[in-house]
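Record pair follows.
FIRST:
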Amino acid sequence: MYTPQFRFVLLISLFVIFGTLAQVLYSYSFGEKGLNIEIYISGVLTLLLSTVGGFVFIWMCSKFITFNGLKATGFEGVFRDEYGTNFVFKHPIRLTKFLPDLIAKPINGNIHPIESELIAFLSGYKNMPFDIYDPKSLSIYEHSMAMWRHSKRIKNTNSYHHITALSKYLGLIYVYKAKRKSAPLWQFWVKDKIKYSKRCLFHGGLSSFILSTMPSFNSLDEKTKRSLLTAVRFADNPMSIPANCDQLTFSLYENTHRAEQRLKKVLNKNSSKDLDPSQTDILQFKQQIKDFLQSGIKDLDLNPSTPANQSDGVYLGLGVAIIRLPCLLSSLSKNLTPDIRSAMDLWDISHKHHKNWDYLIEVLQEKELLADSLDEQKINHPVNSFVIDSFAIHNALLIKIEQKSYPNLRGFLDNLPQFKSYALIEKNEEDLIKEIKQKSTKIDEFIRSLYS
Protein backbone atom coordinates (compact mmCIF):
# COMPACT_ATOMS: atom_id res chain seq x y z
CA MET A 1 0.00 0.00 0.00
CA TYR A 2 2.70 2.48 1.06
CA THR A 3 5.04 2.57 -1.89
CA PRO A 4 8.63 3.89 -1.65
CA GLN A 5 7.57 7.02 -3.55
CA PHE A 6 4.82 7.73 -1.00
CA ARG A 7 7.15 7.22 1.95
CA PHE A 8 9.77 9.45 0.32
CA VAL A 9 7.19 12.24 -0.10
CA LEU A 10 6.15 11.77 3.52
CA LEU A 11 9.74 11.97 4.72
CA ILE A 12 10.42 15.17 2.76
CA SER A 13 7.18 16.67 4.07
CA LEU A 14 8.14 15.91 7.67
CA PHE A 15 11.53 17.55 7.17
CA VAL A 16 9.81 20.63 5.74
CA ILE A 17 7.31 20.80 8.61
CA PHE A 18 9.86 20.45 11.40
CA GLY A 19 12.36 22.71 9.68
CA THR A 20 9.85 25.50 9.11
CA LEU A 21 8.41 25.09 12.60
CA ALA A 22 11.87 25.49 14.06
CA GLN A 23 12.37 28.62 11.99
CA VAL A 24 9.03 30.06 13.19
CA LEU A 25 9.82 29.37 16.83
CA TYR A 26 13.27 30.90 16.49
CA SER A 27 12.04 33.99 14.62
CA TYR A 28 8.86 34.82 16.58
CA SER A 29 9.40 33.39 20.04
CA PHE A 30 13.05 34.18 20.58
CA GLY A 31 13.45 37.26 18.38
CA GLU A 32 14.18 40.82 19.49
CA LYS A 33 10.50 41.87 19.54
CA GLY A 34 9.30 38.87 21.53
CA LEU A 35 6.14 36.90 20.86
CA ASN A 36 3.48 38.53 18.66
CA ILE A 37 0.28 36.46 18.69
CA GLU A 38 -1.15 37.82 15.43
CA ILE A 39 2.07 37.38 13.48
CA TYR A 40 2.60 33.97 15.08
CA ILE A 41 -0.90 32.69 14.12
CA SER A 42 -0.52 34.13 10.62
CA GLY A 43 2.81 32.40 10.22
CA VAL A 44 1.43 29.08 11.49
CA LEU A 45 -1.50 29.22 9.07
CA THR A 46 0.82 30.13 6.18
CA LEU A 47 3.12 27.26 7.11
CA LEU A 48 0.24 24.80 7.40
CA LEU A 49 -1.30 25.75 4.07
CA SER A 50 2.03 25.74 2.24
CA THR A 51 2.95 22.36 3.74
CA VAL A 52 -0.36 20.76 2.83
CA GLY A 53 -0.31 22.35 -0.61
CA GLY A 54 3.28 21.25 -1.24
CA PHE A 55 2.53 17.72 -0.04
CA VAL A 56 -0.50 17.45 -2.34
CA PHE A 57 1.47 18.88 -5.27
CA ILE A 58 4.36 16.42 -4.84
CA TRP A 59 1.96 13.51 -4.38
CA MET A 60 0.06 14.46 -7.53
CA CYS A 61 3.31 14.67 -9.49
CA SER A 62 4.55 11.28 -8.31
CA LYS A 63 1.13 9.71 -8.90
CA PHE A 64 0.17 10.93 -12.33
CA ILE A 65 3.25 12.40 -14.07
CA THR A 66 5.73 10.10 -15.84
CA PHE A 67 8.99 10.83 -17.59
CA ASN A 68 8.50 8.51 -20.56
CA GLY A 69 8.10 11.33 -23.07
CA LEU A 70 11.00 13.48 -21.90
CA LYS A 71 13.94 11.30 -22.93
CA ALA A 72 14.40 8.01 -24.76
CA THR A 73 14.84 5.32 -22.12
CA GLY A 74 15.34 2.36 -24.45
CA PHE A 75 11.74 1.20 -24.76
CA GLU A 76 10.48 3.61 -27.38
CA GLY A 77 11.72 1.30 -30.16
CA VAL A 78 9.86 -0.87 -32.63
CA PHE A 79 7.92 -3.93 -31.59
CA ARG A 80 9.34 -6.16 -34.32
CA ASP A 81 12.18 -8.64 -34.41
CA GLU A 82 14.85 -8.92 -37.09
CA TYR A 83 12.54 -10.98 -39.33
CA GLY A 84 9.65 -8.50 -39.24
CA THR A 85 7.55 -10.55 -36.82
CA ASN A 86 5.47 -8.55 -34.33
CA PHE A 87 6.90 -9.03 -30.85
CA VAL A 88 4.29 -8.08 -28.25
CA PHE A 89 4.91 -8.35 -24.52
CA LYS A 90 2.01 -9.53 -22.40
CA HIS A 91 3.28 -7.42 -19.51
CA PRO A 92 4.80 -4.11 -20.70
CA ILE A 93 8.35 -3.43 -19.55
CA ARG A 94 8.79 -0.17 -17.70
CA LEU A 95 12.01 1.51 -16.71
CA THR A 96 11.68 2.20 -12.99
CA LYS A 97 14.92 4.17 -12.67
CA PHE A 98 15.03 7.81 -13.79
CA LEU A 99 17.23 8.39 -16.83
CA PRO A 100 20.00 5.85 -16.11
CA ASP A 101 21.99 6.96 -19.15
CA LEU A 102 22.57 10.27 -17.35
CA ILE A 103 23.02 9.24 -13.72
CA ALA A 104 25.11 6.14 -14.47
CA LYS A 105 26.94 6.97 -17.67
CA PRO A 106 30.19 4.96 -18.01
CA ILE A 107 33.38 6.84 -17.27
CA ASN A 108 35.29 5.27 -20.16
CA GLY A 109 34.31 7.14 -23.30
CA ASN A 110 36.33 4.92 -25.69
CA ILE A 111 33.51 2.44 -26.18
CA HIS A 112 30.68 2.08 -28.66
CA PRO A 113 27.57 4.21 -27.94
CA ILE A 114 25.45 1.07 -27.65
CA GLU A 115 27.85 -0.33 -25.06
CA SER A 116 27.50 2.89 -23.12
CA GLU A 117 23.71 2.74 -23.26
CA LEU A 118 23.60 -0.93 -22.28
CA ILE A 119 25.88 -0.37 -19.30
CA ALA A 120 23.80 2.60 -18.20
CA PHE A 121 20.60 0.62 -18.66
CA LEU A 122 21.91 -2.39 -16.72
CA SER A 123 23.03 -0.14 -13.87
CA GLY A 124 19.34 0.20 -13.02
CA TYR A 125 19.33 -3.51 -12.08
CA LYS A 126 22.23 -3.70 -9.67
CA ASN A 127 19.93 -5.19 -7.05
CA MET A 128 18.19 -7.77 -9.26
CA PRO A 129 19.90 -11.18 -8.88
CA PHE A 130 21.12 -13.09 -11.91
CA ASP A 131 19.96 -16.37 -10.32
CA ILE A 132 16.95 -15.87 -8.04
CA TYR A 133 17.47 -19.33 -6.51
CA ASP A 134 21.05 -18.64 -5.41
CA PRO A 135 21.30 -16.32 -2.38
CA LYS A 136 24.94 -15.57 -3.26
CA SER A 137 24.24 -14.85 -6.91
CA LEU A 138 25.69 -11.85 -8.69
CA SER A 139 23.28 -9.21 -9.86
CA ILE A 140 22.29 -9.01 -13.53
CA TYR A 141 24.44 -5.90 -13.80
CA GLU A 142 27.51 -7.55 -12.21
CA HIS A 143 27.17 -10.71 -14.32
CA SER A 144 26.76 -8.83 -17.59
CA MET A 145 29.64 -6.49 -16.79
CA ALA A 146 31.88 -9.45 -15.93
CA MET A 147 31.07 -11.07 -19.29
CA TRP A 148 31.80 -7.75 -20.98
CA ARG A 149 35.23 -7.52 -19.33
CA HIS A 150 36.10 -11.10 -20.29
CA SER A 151 34.96 -10.41 -23.85
CA LYS A 152 37.32 -7.44 -24.07
CA ARG A 153 40.24 -9.71 -23.07
CA ILE A 154 39.62 -12.15 -25.92
CA LYS A 155 41.80 -11.58 -28.96
CA ASN A 156 40.41 -10.54 -32.34
CA THR A 157 37.21 -9.04 -30.94
CA ASN A 158 35.54 -5.68 -31.51
CA SER A 159 32.69 -3.59 -30.10
CA TYR A 160 30.03 -5.84 -31.63
CA HIS A 161 31.35 -8.82 -29.67
CA HIS A 162 31.22 -6.79 -26.46
CA ILE A 163 27.67 -5.58 -27.22
CA THR A 164 26.54 -9.18 -27.64
CA ALA A 165 28.17 -10.18 -24.35
CA LEU A 166 26.33 -7.36 -22.57
CA SER A 167 23.02 -8.24 -24.24
CA LYS A 168 22.83 -12.01 -23.74
CA TYR A 169 20.88 -11.85 -20.47
CA LEU A 170 18.95 -8.61 -20.93
CA GLY A 171 15.73 -10.64 -21.07
CA LEU A 172 16.05 -11.58 -17.40
CA ILE A 173 14.82 -8.14 -16.36
CA TYR A 174 11.49 -9.09 -17.92
CA VAL A 175 11.52 -12.73 -16.83
CA TYR A 176 11.94 -11.87 -13.12
CA LYS A 177 8.94 -10.33 -11.41
CA ALA A 178 9.54 -8.48 -8.15
CA LYS A 179 7.07 -8.81 -5.27
CA ARG A 180 7.61 -5.96 -2.82
CA LYS A 181 6.67 -6.13 0.86
CA SER A 182 6.64 -2.69 2.46
CA ALA A 183 6.92 -1.82 6.13
CA PRO A 184 4.11 0.03 7.95
CA LEU A 185 3.82 3.76 7.42
CA TRP A 186 5.32 4.64 10.77
CA GLN A 187 8.45 2.61 9.88
CA PHE A 188 9.23 4.73 6.84
CA TRP A 189 12.97 4.19 7.28
CA VAL A 190 12.74 0.40 6.81
CA LYS A 191 13.68 -0.88 3.36
CA ASP A 192 11.20 -2.91 1.35
CA LYS A 193 11.63 -6.67 1.26
CA ILE A 194 11.72 -7.85 -2.34
CA LYS A 195 11.12 -11.43 -3.48
CA TYR A 196 11.57 -12.41 -7.13
CA SER A 197 9.66 -14.99 -9.12
CA LYS A 198 9.62 -15.98 -12.78
CA ARG A 199 7.04 -14.41 -15.04
CA CYS A 200 7.94 -16.68 -17.97
CA LEU A 201 10.79 -18.80 -19.32
CA PHE A 202 13.91 -17.00 -20.50
CA HIS A 203 14.80 -17.07 -24.18
CA GLY A 204 16.96 -15.03 -26.48
CA GLY A 205 14.05 -13.28 -28.17
CA LEU A 206 13.49 -11.19 -25.04
CA SER A 207 17.11 -10.04 -24.98
CA SER A 208 17.25 -9.29 -28.71
CA PHE A 209 14.09 -7.20 -28.47
CA ILE A 210 15.45 -5.07 -25.62
CA LEU A 211 18.74 -4.65 -27.51
CA SER A 212 16.83 -3.43 -30.58
CA THR A 213 15.24 -0.63 -28.53
CA MET A 214 18.50 1.00 -27.48
CA PRO A 215 18.54 4.57 -28.91
CA SER A 216 21.83 4.17 -30.83
CA PHE A 217 20.87 0.81 -32.30
CA ASN A 218 19.09 2.41 -35.26
CA SER A 219 22.31 4.11 -36.31
CA LEU A 220 23.79 0.72 -37.34
CA ASP A 221 23.52 -0.63 -40.86
CA GLU A 222 20.95 -3.34 -41.52
CA LYS A 223 23.50 -6.13 -41.95
CA THR A 224 25.10 -5.44 -38.56
CA LYS A 225 21.69 -5.15 -36.90
CA ARG A 226 20.71 -8.55 -38.24
CA SER A 227 23.96 -10.14 -37.07
CA LEU A 228 23.65 -8.73 -33.54
CA LEU A 229 19.98 -9.63 -33.11
CA THR A 230 20.41 -13.12 -34.55
CA ALA A 231 23.43 -13.89 -32.36
CA VAL A 232 21.61 -12.75 -29.22
CA ARG A 233 18.30 -14.39 -30.09
CA PHE A 234 19.78 -17.82 -30.87
CA ALA A 235 22.63 -17.71 -28.35
CA ASP A 236 21.29 -20.88 -26.67
CA ASN A 237 19.97 -22.52 -29.83
CA PRO A 238 22.67 -22.35 -32.51
CA MET A 239 20.95 -24.91 -34.75
CA SER A 240 18.24 -22.30 -35.40
CA ILE A 241 20.71 -19.73 -36.73
CA PRO A 242 19.79 -19.21 -40.40
CA ALA A 243 22.21 -20.85 -42.80
CA ASN A 244 22.58 -17.64 -44.83
CA CYS A 245 23.96 -15.62 -41.90
CA ASP A 246 27.39 -14.08 -42.31
CA GLN A 247 30.49 -15.08 -40.36
CA LEU A 248 30.04 -12.18 -37.95
CA THR A 249 26.93 -13.85 -36.49
CA PHE A 250 28.79 -17.07 -35.71
CA SER A 251 31.77 -15.10 -34.40
CA LEU A 252 29.48 -13.17 -32.02
CA TYR A 253 27.89 -16.44 -30.87
CA GLU A 254 31.24 -18.13 -30.22
CA ASN A 255 32.75 -15.14 -28.44
CA THR A 256 29.77 -14.64 -26.11
CA HIS A 257 29.88 -18.21 -24.87
CA ARG A 258 33.65 -18.11 -24.64
CA ALA A 259 33.42 -15.06 -22.36
CA GLU A 260 30.71 -16.72 -20.27
CA GLN A 261 32.76 -19.91 -19.92
CA ARG A 262 35.74 -17.91 -18.65
CA LEU A 263 33.48 -16.16 -16.16
CA LYS A 264 32.15 -19.51 -14.92
CA LYS A 265 35.69 -20.74 -14.37
CA VAL A 266 36.50 -17.67 -12.28
CA LEU A 267 33.32 -18.00 -10.22
CA ASN A 268 33.79 -21.73 -9.66
CA LYS A 269 37.43 -21.19 -8.75
CA ASN A 270 36.42 -18.65 -6.11
CA SER A 271 33.76 -20.98 -4.72
CA SER A 272 35.94 -24.14 -5.02
CA LYS A 273 33.33 -25.91 -7.16
CA ASP A 274 34.22 -28.78 -9.48
CA LEU A 275 33.81 -28.22 -13.22
CA ASP A 276 34.16 -31.88 -14.23
CA PRO A 277 31.29 -33.10 -16.45
CA SER A 278 28.75 -35.57 -15.15
CA GLN A 279 28.20 -39.01 -16.66
CA THR A 280 25.03 -37.72 -18.31
CA ASP A 281 27.01 -34.90 -19.93
CA ILE A 282 29.60 -37.37 -21.21
CA LEU A 283 26.94 -39.67 -22.70
CA GLN A 284 25.21 -36.74 -24.40
CA PHE A 285 28.56 -35.49 -25.69
CA LYS A 286 29.34 -38.87 -27.27
CA GLN A 287 25.90 -39.11 -28.83
CA GLN A 288 26.11 -35.65 -30.36
CA ILE A 289 29.60 -36.43 -31.66
CA LYS A 290 28.17 -39.49 -33.41
CA ASP A 291 25.38 -37.41 -34.93
CA PHE A 292 27.70 -34.78 -36.39
CA LEU A 293 30.80 -36.87 -37.05
CA GLN A 294 30.57 -36.95 -40.84
CA SER A 295 29.69 -33.26 -41.20
CA GLY A 296 32.52 -32.37 -38.80
CA ILE A 297 35.05 -34.25 -40.95
CA LYS A 298 33.71 -32.60 -44.10
CA ASP A 299 34.29 -29.16 -42.59
CA LEU A 300 38.02 -29.90 -42.14
CA ASP A 301 40.64 -28.78 -44.65
CA LEU A 302 42.11 -32.12 -45.75
CA ASN A 303 43.13 -30.97 -49.22
CA PRO A 304 46.54 -32.50 -50.09
CA SER A 305 47.43 -29.39 -52.11
CA THR A 306 47.31 -27.25 -48.94
CA PRO A 307 50.67 -27.06 -47.13
CA ALA A 308 50.76 -29.51 -44.24
CA ASN A 309 51.56 -26.79 -41.70
CA GLN A 310 48.41 -24.83 -42.68
CA SER A 311 45.83 -27.59 -43.01
CA ASP A 312 43.72 -29.61 -40.56
CA GLY A 313 45.18 -32.82 -41.95
CA VAL A 314 45.82 -34.64 -45.22
CA TYR A 315 43.71 -37.08 -47.21
CA LEU A 316 46.06 -39.79 -48.45
CA GLY A 317 43.56 -41.57 -50.67
CA LEU A 318 41.67 -44.89 -50.53
CA GLY A 319 39.71 -43.63 -47.52
CA VAL A 320 42.79 -42.99 -45.37
CA ALA A 321 43.32 -39.54 -43.83
CA ILE A 322 45.63 -38.01 -41.26
CA ILE A 323 43.63 -35.58 -39.07
CA ARG A 324 44.83 -33.30 -36.31
CA LEU A 325 42.90 -34.27 -33.20
CA PRO A 326 42.49 -30.67 -31.87
CA CYS A 327 41.12 -29.57 -35.27
CA LEU A 328 38.64 -32.44 -35.38
CA LEU A 329 37.45 -31.72 -31.84
CA SER A 330 37.09 -28.02 -32.65
CA SER A 331 35.11 -28.75 -35.82
CA LEU A 332 32.75 -31.14 -34.02
CA SER A 333 32.25 -28.86 -31.02
CA LYS A 334 30.70 -26.15 -33.22
CA ASN A 335 27.67 -28.41 -33.72
CA LEU A 336 27.18 -29.28 -30.04
CA THR A 337 24.48 -27.72 -27.92
CA PRO A 338 25.74 -24.82 -25.75
CA ASP A 339 25.03 -26.61 -22.45
CA ILE A 340 27.03 -29.71 -23.44
CA ARG A 341 29.79 -27.60 -24.90
CA SER A 342 30.01 -25.63 -21.66
CA ALA A 343 29.91 -28.76 -19.50
CA MET A 344 32.73 -30.33 -21.53
CA ASP A 345 34.75 -27.06 -21.58
CA LEU A 346 34.88 -26.85 -25.37
CA TRP A 347 34.68 -23.11 -25.98
CA ASP A 348 38.45 -22.58 -25.77
CA ILE A 349 40.33 -25.38 -27.55
CA SER A 350 44.11 -25.26 -27.94
CA HIS A 351 46.58 -27.69 -29.49
CA LYS A 352 47.51 -28.95 -26.05
CA HIS A 353 46.06 -32.14 -24.59
CA HIS A 354 42.36 -31.85 -23.82
CA LYS A 355 40.46 -34.08 -21.41
CA ASN A 356 37.83 -34.81 -24.10
CA TRP A 357 40.31 -36.41 -26.50
CA ASP A 358 39.73 -39.78 -24.84
CA TYR A 359 35.94 -39.57 -25.27
CA LEU A 360 36.31 -38.65 -28.94
CA ILE A 361 38.72 -41.55 -29.51
CA GLU A 362 36.23 -43.92 -27.87
CA VAL A 363 33.56 -42.81 -30.36
CA LEU A 364 35.95 -43.28 -33.31
CA GLN A 365 36.88 -46.74 -32.07
CA GLU A 366 33.23 -47.65 -31.65
CA LYS A 367 32.56 -46.52 -35.23
CA GLU A 368 35.65 -48.48 -36.42
CA LEU A 369 37.19 -45.40 -38.00
CA LEU A 370 40.73 -45.70 -36.60
CA ALA A 371 43.24 -47.37 -38.94
CA ASP A 372 45.75 -49.85 -37.51
CA SER A 373 48.59 -49.37 -40.03
CA LEU A 374 50.05 -46.92 -42.54
CA ASP A 375 51.85 -48.54 -45.48
CA GLU A 376 52.70 -51.62 -43.37
CA GLN A 377 53.76 -49.37 -40.48
CA LYS A 378 51.86 -50.69 -37.48
CA ILE A 379 50.15 -48.09 -35.28
CA ASN A 380 50.31 -48.86 -31.56
CA HIS A 381 48.54 -45.78 -30.18
CA PRO A 382 45.51 -43.81 -31.37
CA VAL A 383 47.30 -40.43 -31.13
CA ASN A 384 50.57 -40.19 -33.03
CA SER A 385 52.91 -37.84 -34.86
CA PHE A 386 53.22 -38.10 -38.63
CA VAL A 387 55.73 -36.72 -41.12
CA ILE A 388 54.48 -35.31 -44.44
CA ASP A 389 56.92 -33.60 -46.79
CA SER A 390 59.49 -33.35 -43.96
CA PHE A 391 56.91 -31.54 -41.79
CA ALA A 392 55.76 -33.13 -38.55
CA ILE A 393 52.05 -33.23 -37.65
CA HIS A 394 51.67 -33.83 -33.94
CA ASN A 395 48.63 -35.09 -31.99
CA ALA A 396 47.04 -36.60 -35.07
CA LEU A 397 44.81 -39.57 -35.86
CA LEU A 398 44.88 -41.97 -38.80
CA ILE A 399 41.30 -42.38 -40.04
CA LYS A 400 40.08 -45.16 -42.33
CA ILE A 401 36.73 -44.43 -44.01
CA GLU A 402 35.12 -47.40 -45.70
CA GLN A 403 32.99 -46.92 -48.82
CA LYS A 404 30.34 -49.32 -47.56
CA SER A 405 29.83 -47.66 -44.18
CA TYR A 406 30.15 -43.98 -45.17
CA PRO A 407 29.52 -43.63 -48.94
CA ASN A 408 28.77 -39.88 -48.89
CA LEU A 409 31.81 -38.97 -46.81
CA ARG A 410 34.06 -41.30 -48.83
CA GLY A 411 32.81 -39.79 -52.08
CA PHE A 412 33.46 -36.28 -50.78
CA LEU A 413 37.04 -37.14 -49.83
CA ASP A 414 37.75 -39.02 -53.06
CA ASN A 415 36.94 -35.83 -54.99
CA LEU A 416 39.88 -34.04 -53.36
CA PRO A 417 43.14 -33.68 -55.32
CA GLN A 418 45.42 -36.71 -55.34
CA PHE A 419 48.11 -37.02 -52.68
CA LYS A 420 51.50 -37.21 -54.45
CA SER A 421 53.97 -37.12 -51.58
CA TYR A 422 54.83 -39.52 -48.74
CA ALA A 423 53.61 -39.99 -45.18
CA LEU A 424 55.49 -41.61 -42.31
CA ILE A 425 54.66 -42.25 -38.70
CA GLU A 426 57.01 -41.16 -35.93
CA LYS A 427 57.64 -43.80 -33.29
CA ASN A 428 59.25 -43.52 -29.92
CA GLU A 429 62.21 -45.63 -28.83
CA GLU A 430 60.10 -48.13 -26.93
CA ASP A 431 57.84 -48.87 -29.90
CA LEU A 432 60.82 -49.16 -32.25
CA ILE A 433 62.58 -51.67 -30.01
CA LYS A 434 59.37 -53.67 -29.67
CA GLU A 435 58.82 -53.69 -33.44
CA ILE A 436 62.46 -54.70 -34.13
CA LYS A 437 62.12 -57.61 -31.72
CA GLN A 438 58.90 -58.76 -33.36
CA LYS A 439 60.43 -58.61 -36.85
CA SER A 440 63.62 -60.34 -35.74
CA THR A 441 61.54 -63.12 -34.20
CA LYS A 442 59.72 -63.56 -37.51
CA ILE A 443 63.07 -63.74 -39.35
CA ASP A 444 64.36 -66.39 -36.94
CA GLU A 445 61.19 -68.40 -37.40
CA PHE A 446 61.55 -68.13 -41.18
CA ILE A 447 65.16 -69.32 -41.08
CA ARG A 448 64.26 -72.24 -38.87
CA SER A 449 61.45 -73.20 -41.24
CA LEU A 450 63.99 -73.41 -44.09
CA TYR A 451 66.18 -75.96 -42.31
CA SER A 452 63.47 -77.94 -40.59
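SECOND:
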Amino acid sequence: MIHFSPLQIAFENFLVKVAVDSLKMEAEEFKTLREMHTQEWIIDDLQRRSFEKGLANYNLRALRKALLTNHHVSFRTFKEWQPAEVWDMFY
Protein backbone atom coordinates (compact mmCIF):
# COMPACT_ATOMS: atom_id res chain seq x y z
CA MET A 1 0.00 0.00 0.00
CA ILE A 2 1.31 3.45 -0.93
CA HIS A 3 1.17 6.13 1.74
CA PHE A 4 0.78 9.76 0.73
CA SER A 5 1.56 12.82 2.77
CA PRO A 6 -1.24 15.30 3.46
CA LEU A 7 0.47 17.62 0.98
CA GLN A 8 0.39 15.00 -1.77
CA ILE A 9 -3.26 14.25 -1.00
CA ALA A 10 -4.12 17.97 -1.17
CA PHE A 11 -2.48 18.28 -4.60
CA GLU A 12 -4.16 15.09 -5.84
CA ASN A 13 -7.52 16.50 -4.71
CA PHE A 14 -6.75 19.69 -6.59
CA LEU A 15 -6.01 17.68 -9.75
CA VAL A 16 -9.36 15.89 -9.36
CA LYS A 17 -11.15 19.25 -9.07
CA VAL A 18 -9.41 20.56 -12.19
CA ALA A 19 -10.33 17.41 -14.11
CA VAL A 20 -13.92 17.05 -12.95
CA ASP A 21 -15.04 20.64 -12.32
CA SER A 22 -13.05 22.60 -14.89
CA LEU A 23 -12.56 20.07 -17.67
CA LYS A 24 -15.88 18.26 -17.09
CA MET A 25 -14.24 14.83 -17.09
CA GLU A 26 -16.12 11.97 -15.50
CA ALA A 27 -14.67 11.06 -12.09
CA GLU A 28 -14.27 7.45 -13.22
CA GLU A 29 -12.34 8.53 -16.31
CA PHE A 30 -9.94 10.54 -14.17
CA LYS A 31 -9.60 7.69 -11.67
CA THR A 32 -8.76 5.26 -14.49
CA LEU A 33 -6.17 7.64 -15.95
CA ARG A 34 -4.66 8.19 -12.51
CA GLU A 35 -4.31 4.45 -11.95
CA MET A 36 -2.65 3.98 -15.35
CA HIS A 37 -0.28 6.95 -15.41
CA THR A 38 2.14 8.95 -13.31
CA GLN A 39 1.29 12.30 -11.78
CA GLU A 40 3.60 13.98 -14.32
CA TRP A 41 1.63 12.43 -17.18
CA ILE A 42 -1.65 13.50 -15.57
CA ILE A 43 -0.39 17.08 -15.24
CA ASP A 44 0.61 17.15 -18.91
CA ASP A 45 -2.75 15.68 -19.96
CA LEU A 46 -4.81 18.13 -17.87
CA GLN A 47 -2.82 21.08 -19.20
CA ARG A 48 -3.24 19.82 -22.78
CA ARG A 49 -6.99 19.41 -22.32
CA SER A 50 -7.27 22.89 -20.78
CA PHE A 51 -5.43 24.38 -23.75
CA GLU A 52 -7.55 22.46 -26.27
CA LYS A 53 -10.77 23.67 -24.62
CA GLY A 54 -9.52 27.24 -24.45
CA LEU A 55 -9.73 27.29 -20.68
CA ALA A 56 -7.35 28.90 -18.22
CA ASN A 57 -4.07 27.13 -18.76
CA TYR A 58 -2.75 26.62 -15.25
CA ASN A 59 0.89 25.75 -14.78
CA LEU A 60 0.17 22.80 -12.50
CA ARG A 61 3.84 22.12 -11.85
CA ALA A 62 4.32 25.69 -10.63
CA LEU A 63 1.25 25.32 -8.40
CA ARG A 64 2.62 22.07 -6.97
CA LYS A 65 6.01 23.67 -6.35
CA ALA A 66 4.38 26.70 -4.65
CA LEU A 67 2.31 24.40 -2.44
CA LEU A 68 5.42 22.46 -1.45
CA THR A 69 7.42 25.65 -0.80
CA ASN A 70 4.63 27.17 1.29
CA HIS A 71 4.38 23.96 3.29
CA HIS A 72 8.11 23.91 4.00
CA VAL A 73 8.16 27.57 5.04
CA SER A 74 5.16 27.22 7.32
CA PHE A 75 6.52 24.01 8.88
CA ARG A 76 9.93 25.60 9.46
CA THR A 77 8.27 28.68 10.97
CA PHE A 78 6.17 26.45 13.21
CA LYS A 79 9.25 24.52 14.39
CA GLU A 80 11.24 27.71 15.04
CA TRP A 81 8.44 29.58 16.81
CA GLN A 82 9.09 30.41 20.43
CA PRO A 83 6.49 31.79 22.79
CA ALA A 84 6.88 35.39 23.81
CA GLU A 85 8.90 35.94 26.93
CA VAL A 86 6.70 36.40 29.95
CA TRP A 87 7.76 39.09 32.37
CA ASP A 88 7.13 38.60 36.00
CA MET A 89 5.52 41.82 37.23
CA PHE A 90 6.34 40.95 40.84
CA TYR A 91 10.02 40.27 40.29
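COMMENT: Residues 6-78 form one domain.
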